[in-house]
Amino acid sequence: MLIRIVRMTFQPDKLDEFMVIFNQSKDRIRTFPGCRHLELLQDIDKPNVRMTYSLWESADELEAYRQSELFRTTWAATKVLFADKPVAFSAEKITEL
């Protein structure tokens, strides 16, 4: 299982616009082959920072999503709303306590 976290800093006046984009695409992302989970988080100290937390069956399935039309159109609409560069990383769970 691959964990994918993407941290995005938005222009404060663009958060509503982002939420429209997210709400229009979240169900299609959740049902994309290989996606097992999707959450949207908000930074407690920075109200214009959002993070997506998603679980993928494999790096290949995440990459297939990243090459899809769904990702391309969603990302194109989202990235113009940023106030800073996004930070994304993938990880694998080592152990659960």
Automatic annotation (TrEMBL):
Q: Which PROSITE patterns match?
A: ABM
Q: Which domain of life is it from?
A: Bacteria
A GO molecular function for this record? monooxygenase activity
Keywords attached to this entry? Monooxygenase, Oxidoreductase
One Pfam family in the UniProt entry: ABM
User: Which InterPro entries does its entry note?
Assistant: ABM_dom, Dimeric_a/b-barrel
* UniProt domain ABM: residue ranges: 2-93
Which species is this record about?
Answer: Nibrella saemangeumensis
Tell me the protein's name.
Answer: Quinol monooxygenase
